[in-house]
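It is worth pausing here to work through a concrete case rather than discussing structure prediction in the abstract. The textbook approach is simple: state the sequence, then state the predicted structure, then interpret. We follow exactly that order.
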Amino acid sequence: MPVGMDGRVRQPDGPIGYLRLTSFSSNAAAEMREAIQELEAAGASSFILDLRNNPGGLVCSSIDIARLWLDGSPVVFNVSGREPDEIQSQLVDAPGSALTHRPLAVLVNSGSASAAEILSGALHDNHRAVILGDTNTYGKGKIQSVFELQGGSALFVTVARYQTPNGTEIDRIGIVPDHSCVLPGAPASDDDEGSDSSSFMAGLPMVPGSEVALLESLM
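Step two, the predicted structure:
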């Protein structure tokens, strides 16, 4: 099941709804809808969407999930062609109201890629969520055509790239978190020294029990 959820960690205003999305499969949006509704009914005062180490999947699934959090028919992502003025915007297919308007934070790391980056960018640029993480996301934003060659080889040609709704390139850059988010006692990464992302520290380990510790840290 691509969607996991938890609402046990509490704060004064009520429980925090925790949702972890592991892949963008064909049924991810339906499971996400069910999880949001269940946590909303349980009195969730805010939500955390965990996209750490999510490698992506179906782009159409990212559009369907964005629809669950956004009102109207906003831009989910842009596609830039080989020419500078070739920009096409992908909007939410079925305009409507979001399932919830409660505060939302999205967790990412360097393993968040492709559709996970598209969804993160859509929620961020539409002012629906704040992005938390220890570093930029993976940076996978190419749209490629594959041409089969003789001998069983193939040629991959980049024909376009994904951008966030505000026009930020995803490929090789990734989504830049709004704030660093680390678990208590997590050491700084040596790779971050001297880089633009030096303010981000290594953290958010994917280990048993880390979700509860992370939620308590965020509170």
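Step three, interpretation. The helical segments are 28-41, 59-69, 115-125, 210-218. The CA atoms of residues 63 and 161 lie 16 Å apart.
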